[in-house]
Amino acid sequence: MDFQKSYKYMLKTIKGFASILPIMLGIIFLIGLVKEFITFKSIATLFGNNLITDVLFGSVAGSILAGNALNSYVIGGELLDSGVSLFAITAFLVSWVTVGIVQLPAESAILGKKFALWRNVISFILTLIVAVFVVIIMGVVS
Amino acid sequence: MKKKKSKNGYYFAITVAIIYIIVLIINPRKTGNAFLYSLGIFKKIIPVLIIILIFMWLLKFIPRKKVKKYIGSGSGLKGWLIVALAGMLSHGPIYVWYPLLKELREKGMNNGMAATFLYCRAVKIPLLPMMIAYFGGSFTLILTLAMVVASLLEGIIIQRVLS
What we know:
- The complex is a heterodimer of chains A (142) and B (163).
- Chain A has helices at 3-37, 40-44, 51-64, 69-81, 86-98, 104-111, 113-141.
- Chain A is mostly helical and 142 residues long.
- In chain A, helix 6 (104-111) crosses helix 7 (113-141).
- Chain B is globular and about 55 Å long.
- At the A-B interface, helix 1, helix 4, helix 5, helix 6 and helix 7 of A face helix 1, helix 2, helix 5, helix 6 and helix 7 of B.
């Protein structure tokens, strides 16, 4: 391996990475705020009205919240126990991992505004389709 | 253009810092917790960041033709399977993967495959047992399969829309 070339590439990589570090740090610290100020309890109070608003809240809440997917299982599990429909919970679980409102500034800065917007919009629509599909199949299976 | 983009990053970081200052005045305890939580995330993702940096560095040695062959527009089913599998196996938060995807795209990866990779990150293999514990085996299986299909659908749509 050419040492000089490797060194040049390494410097280029680090330089490129350093340029996106501010936005990445911004996202990480924003996630902390969202996590601390939007509590499990405040999410739970949004649910329990009717199916359509539940599904809507589920997918919107999942889109805004970010972090370890395990947290979405815990919240989803609690919602399920309190009688919220599986449809809304599935939408919540799927949008948590596929739609990222908090990460959107980083995604559009690094991967392009058009790509980021389209990807999130299509993911949001697919969340609803996946939720309908899963609940219907679950109904058939059980 | 590039210069403007990198400046946007600083503006964004400054905006977040200003938000912190405002909420610090409103609720110092929660803001402190948020700061510590974020610091924890940062510490946790350092190993992933290092791995991605190494990937990005190694990628510079791979010719564009090779990248295009495996995950470019003409790679066909093989390309979709590679990105879907890579998405499922990738660790850490989604945003740490953006820079590597950017480099891959510059080397010929198509937009749709980048989207499929990001969507497939929704399938968390290490967390599957937890999902089964919370929601049952059949729900987990159906949801996982549905998300894999959705990831391919999303990739195809994005590719159509952005090309």
